[in-house]
Amino acid sequence: MSEQKPVQWASKLGFVMAAAGSAIGLGAIWKFPYVAGTNGGGAFFLIFVMFTVLLGCPLLIGEFIFGRRSQTNAIDAYKKAAPRTAWFLTGWVGVAACFLVLSFYSVIGGWILLYLLKTALGSLSGLSQAQYGSLFASVIQNPVQTLLAQLIFMALTVMVVARGVQKGIERVSAIMMPILFILFILLVLRSVTLENSIEGISFLLVPHFSDLTSESVLFALGQAFFTLTLGVSVMVTYSSYLPKTQNLPRSAGSIVLMNIVVTLLAGLAIFPAVFSFGMQPNEGPTLLFTVLPAVFDQLPFGTLFFIGFLVAFLFAALTSAFSMVEIIVATIGKGDESKRKKLSWTSGLLIFLFGIPSCLSFGVLGGVQIFDKTFFDVVDFTVSNILMPLGALLLSIFIPLKIPKEELFAEMRNGSNVGKGFFYVWYYLLRFVVPLAIIIVFLNLIGIF
After folding, report:
1. pLDDT tens, residue by residue, 357-376
2. Closest CA to 443 of 385, 368, 391
3. Does 3 score more than 60 pLDDT?
4. Alpha-carbon 172 to chain mean position
5. CA angle 302-304-308, nearest 5°?
6. pLDDT, tens digit, for every residue of 384-441?
7. What mean pLDDT do residues 439-448 have?
8. Helix 57-70 to helix 388-402 angle, to the nearest 10 degrees?
9. Angle between helices 302-333 and 143-162 (to 10 degrees)
10. Can you give the CATH number for the domain in which 380 is found?
11. Separation of alpha carbons 412 and 423, rounded Å
12. Has residue 2 been placed in a domain?
C-alpha cells in the first residue's frame, strides 16, 4: 500500500483566505454590532482592536507554530509534544467546542437562509418596525421552516468539506471571502452617504470613554479572543496543512487585519444607516433581523442592498462552519482522505441532530428550561463561557511550557526573517499576559469576577 500524501493547502493565499474565513464569522458580523451598540460604540471598538492586536494575535501565532510544527490533527499534536500526559484532552476540548458551536451556529445560518428567501420573495417590504419584530418571532418559532433551513445550511457546509482541503475549503473560501469584502464595501458606501449618517459614523469611530464600564472592557477582551476562533484548535488544524515556507507572523497579521477590517465594515454598514433613520443600535442579538430590514426597506433599492448584506452574512457563517467540521473530520480521520466524505456527512448529520433542540428553543421547546435557560442558551453559554476560554487558556499555557523556546523560535523563523526582539515580545505576551487576560475574562464570564 502506497503512503498517502499529507494534506496541504495549494497556496499561501488560499490558507490565509480559509483561516480568515474561519475567523470572520458570526462574531464579527452578528455579535460585534449589537455588543458594540450596547457597550459604548467607538470606545468599545478601540479597545477591541487593541486587545485583538496585543493578545489575540500572539495566541493566533502560537496556534500556527504549534500546528505547523506537529503536521497532524489537534489531538495527536498534543500527544506528539507532550507524550504520556493528559494534555491531549485540550484537543478534545476544541473538538467538542466546535461540535457544540456548530449545533447552534447552524440554527442562525438557517435564519439567514430563510431571510434571504423571504427578502427575495418581497415578504420583508413595507412593514413597520414592530411588524419586523413580529415577523422574526414567527420565523424562529416555525419548527418545520427552521429545521429545514438548518439542515440545508449544514448540507452546504458538508458538501464543501467533503471535497477536501484544496478542492473544497480553500477553493470556496477563495471565492467567498473577496465577494464578502466587495459586498461590505458597497454596503458601507451606501450607508455612509445617507442623510444624517455622520451620527452613526461618530458612534463607531469616536471613542467616548465615559460610556465604558468595566463589563464593557471585559466584553471587548472576550470578543477579541473569540472572534478569531481561538482556543478550539481550529487554527492548529488549519496550520498543520502548511509547508515550512509559510511566513506565520505575516499570515497571522493578515488574518487579524482582515478580521478588524470586516468588523469595521460591518459597523459602518449598520450604524450610519440605523442612526440615519432615527433607530437605536442597542437592540441586542436581534439587531440584524429586526432593525436592519426596517432600515434597508426605507432605502432606494433597499431590497437589493439587504440581499447583499445577507449574502455576505451567509458567506461569513459558512466559511466559519467549514473549519468547525474540518477539525472533527481531521481528528477522527487522522489524515486518511479516503474516509473524508463519509466522516464529513456523518459529522454533519450528528451536528444537525444535536442542534434540533437549539433550533426548537424558540418555539415548541421554548418552555423547556435548564438552569433558567433554553437549550440554545445552555449550549451557547457552555461553549462561549466555558469551553472556548478554557481551551484558549490551556493552549496559551501549553505552548511555552511544553515546547522549548529555541524550537518555537526556529519554527517561527521558518518562512520568515523575524528577529529575536520580535520573538521575545511574542513569547512573553503569550506566556504571561495572554493567560492572565483569559483568566480575567473566564472569571467574568462565569460570574466570579
Report:
1. 999 999 888 888 888 889 99
2. 385
3. no
4. 17
5. 115
6. 778 888 888 999 999 999 999 999 999 999 989 889 999 999 999 999 999 998 888 7
7. 73
8. 60
9. 60
10. 1.10.4160.10
11. 8
12. no
Q: How many Å apart are CA 138 and CA 110, to the nearest integer?
A: 14
Domain count, the chain: 1
In a domain, 47, yes or no: yes
Rg over alpha carbons for the chain, rounded to the nearest Å, is: 21
The whole-angstrom separation of Cα 34 and Cα 38 is 6
Grid cell of 93 as nine digits: 476540548
Decide: 398 and 24 in contact? Cβ < 8 Å: no
For residue 325, the model assigns a pLDDT of 95
Is 7 a member of any domain?
no
Taking only the tens place, the pLDDT of each residue in 14-70 is 888 888 888 887 777 777 887 888 787 888 899 999 999 999 999 999 999 999 999
Residue with cell 457563517: 317
Phi–psi pair at 204, nearest 5 degrees: -85, -35
As separate numbers, helices (DSSP H) first and strands (DSSP E) second, the chain gives 22, 0
pLDDT at 186: 87
Written as nine digits, the cell of 33 is: 454590532
Given phi > 0 = left and psi -120 to 50 = alpha, else beta, which region is 371? left
Question: Residue 78: which domain range?
Answer: 12-445
- What distance in Å separates the CA atoms of residue 58 and residue 399, rounded to the nearest whole number? 11
Residue 284 banded pLDDT, cuts 50, 70, 90: low
CA–CA distances in Å: residue 290 to residues 13, 128, 132, 286, 312: 36, 10, 5, 6, 17
Q: How far is CA 246 from CA 179, 242, 309, 413, in A?
A: 25, 7, 33, 10
Whole-number Å distance between alpha carbons of 343 and 341: 6
Q: Write the CB contacts of 133 (distance below 8 Å, at least 6 apart in sequence).
A: 286, 290
Give the CB-side neighbour count of residue 231, counting CA atoms within 13 A. 28
Instruction: Note whether residue 5 is domain-resident.
Output: no
- On whether the CB atoms of residues 358 and 376 are closer than 8 A, the answer is yes
Whole-number Cα distances in Å, 4 to 18, 205, 417: 23, 51, 32
